[in-house]
């Protein structure tokens, strides 16, 4: 084990909420239920307590698993989801137990990406690709996977405003190249 | 294990007590590595395996965690490696990190983030009003995150083959390799998250749903072709927020 780094702040802030709140945040532009609505980028937050989170100055509201939000950094265009290879309900539709929202189209370095995310209550239960990149040499590689991991391919570590990185266990070599080491150095 | 550890403590009121807490936490991790390493000939694990020593209380605890995980996973999780040797790394990392977190708490910290080689345990809030944010790495690109998990008290563990290759095995078949490229589990404690993540990796698509029945607050994985697996097919009435 190496690098016994620590970072401490000297501020004691009194009583802290230590409720074990879990939220999985999915980034990416999302549509509201109305497909014709202009697409804005938003942060999707699933929490068990309806707490709001802020990101980069924008605010989100969490509701019953659908998303609402205001603009954030990612550019967005009017989305036209192509349902060709999905088995999820059409974007924005609601079944009795799940809600599916389709993201707007993100322009990633590999090409356009669009996903839909299905929620049941506060839990993400499915992610489908609606559009995936094509053409470029790099994106050929990616396109051979049936989908990019999530629309978050645009999400570089610094944009994600993360405190730490969870990934498959890395060796010291991997660590040096990893985002975690960058975080440790910045701290 | 040779695994880099990162600790971020936010609430110990002076540098010295924070440093002491972190040193003590690291001592726990180093000790666990020495005692339970399958690579060191004279580790406690190896000596136990050769019958040279009875298991210590800590080793008994680790073996019990392994037994429980093996049972729960139908044998997919196993500390018996394909070559027949004992390899408890799938349990020890989480167990040791949980102990280290306990040491931080004993030293008075209620706001910290401990990252043991990609597995994360958190307590409290880094800053008032917001949770810790653990990015989950894109298996295909170390500079990108596939998701962000927000935690106050809890743990996130990711098991995967994209860093160290096929270092996991399926206890049911003895074969190395895994059905998923990566598996991420969020749970209340680190040991649970760590063990479940390994199980899900081996179990594959079915493992994601299985994990929820075994203590996972969240679980998802990535298939080798890049598709993301989440808990699917959940029926019933959505849980209202608030």
From TrEMBL, chain A:
<dbReference type="GO" id="GO:0016020">
    <property type="term" value="C:membrane"/>
</dbReference>
<dbReference type="GO" id="GO:0010181">
    <property type="term" value="F:FMN binding"/>
</dbReference>
<dbReference type="Pfam" id="PF04205">
    <property type="entry name" value="FMN_bind"/>
</dbReference>
<dbReference type="InterPro" id="IPR007329">
    <property type="entry name" value="FMN-bd"/>
</dbReference>
<feature type="region of interest" description="Disordered">
    <location>
        <begin position="43"/>
        <end position="98"/>
    </location>
</feature>
<protein>
    <submittedName>
        <fullName>FMN-binding protein</fullName>
    </submittedName>
</protein>
<feature type="domain" description="FMN-binding">
    <location>
        <begin position="109"/>
        <end position="186"/>
    </location>
</feature>
């Amino acid at each position: 084990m190496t690098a016994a780094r620590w970072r401490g702040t000297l501020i004691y802030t009194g009583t802290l909420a230590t409720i074990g709140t879990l939220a999985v945040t999915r980034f990416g532009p999302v549509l509201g239920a109305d497909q014709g609505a202009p697409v804005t980028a938003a942060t999707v937050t699933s929490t068990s307590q309806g707490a709001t989170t802020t990101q980069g100055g924008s605010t989100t509201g969490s509701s019953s698993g659908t998303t609402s939000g205001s603009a954030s950094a990612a550019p967005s265009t009017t989305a036209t989801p192509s349902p060709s290879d999905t088995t999820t309900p059409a974007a924005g539709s609601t079944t009795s137990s799940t809600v599916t929202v389709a993201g707007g189209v993100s322009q990633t370095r590999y090409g356009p990406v669009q996903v839909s995310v299905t929620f049941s209550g506060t839990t993400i239960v499915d992610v489908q690709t609606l559009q995936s990149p094509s053409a470029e040499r790099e994106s050929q590689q990616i396109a051979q996977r049936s989908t990019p991991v999530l629309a978050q391919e645009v999400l570089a570590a610094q944009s994600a405003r993360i405190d730490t990185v969870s990934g498959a266990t890395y060796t010291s070599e991997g660590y040096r190249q990893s985002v975690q080491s960058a975080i440790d150095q910045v701290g | 294990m040779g695994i880099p550890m990162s600790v971020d403590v936010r609430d110990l009121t002076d540098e010295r007590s924070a440093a002491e807490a972190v040193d003590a936490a690291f001592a726990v991790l180093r000790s666990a590595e020495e005692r339970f390493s399958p690579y060191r000939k004279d580790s406690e694990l190896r000596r136990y395996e050769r019958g040279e020593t009875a298991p210590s209380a800590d080793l008994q605890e680790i073996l019990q965690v392994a037994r429980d995980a093996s049972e729960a996973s139908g044998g997919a999780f196993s500390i018996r490696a394909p070559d027949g040797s004992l390899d408890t790394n799938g349990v020890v990392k989480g167990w040791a990190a949980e102990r280290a977190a306990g040491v931080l708490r004993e030293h008075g910290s209620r706001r910290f983030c401990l990252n043991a080689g990609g597995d994360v345990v958190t307590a409290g809030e880094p800053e008032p009003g917001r949770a810790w944010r653990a990015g989950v790495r894109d298996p295909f690109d170390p500079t990108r995150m596939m998701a962000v998990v927000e935690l106050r008290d809890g743990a996130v563990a990711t098991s995967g083959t994209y860093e160290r290759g096929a270092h996991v095995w399926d206890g049911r078949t003895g074969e190395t390799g895994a059905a998923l490229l990566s598996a991420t589990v969020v749970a209340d404690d680190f040991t649970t998250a760590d063990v479940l993540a390994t199980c899900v990796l081996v179990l594959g698509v079915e493992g994601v749903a299985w994990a929820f029945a075994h203590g996972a607050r969240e679980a998802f994985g990535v298939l080798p072709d890049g598709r993301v697996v989440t808990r699917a097919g959940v029926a019933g009435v959505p849980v209202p927020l608030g």
